[in-house]
Every structure is written in structure tokens, then in C-alpha cells.
Amino acid sequence: MKWVWCKLCETPAVICPHCGNNCCNGGSNEGCKDDCKGAYEYQQHAFDDGTQPSRDQCTDEIGDIDILMRSKT
To answer: pTM for this structure?
Structure first.
């Protein structure tokens, strides 16, 4: 599983290996073969155990708040 840092939520999130959905958003991509269930379970297990990565341990960042704010103007 790939961990990324969500800049909007300031938390690590898993990327679904089946469809590329970031599991910080609470949804799944249409047509995902398991509706991101495996990725969400992996992410939740790490949160429950306190083993989720820190920001510097994530492989990428998503959710730039500046981009979101500019799109509203």
C-alpha cells in the first residue's frame, strides 16, 4: 500500500492499489473492484495501532489547499 500525506486534512492516507483513490476522502472510485475496502481497512488498522507514517515517511502529498481555494474564486 502507498501512503501519501493529505495537506488539506494534515494526515496520512492510503492510495487504493486497485483504482488510485486516496482514502482520505471517504469514498471510492466507480468501478473499483473492492470499493477500496482493502485500502480503508489497511489505513484504519494502522491508525488503530498507531503505526501510520509521519509526513516525512509518506511517498507523496495530495490535497493542496491553495488549489482548492483558488478554484472557488
So the answer is: 0.82
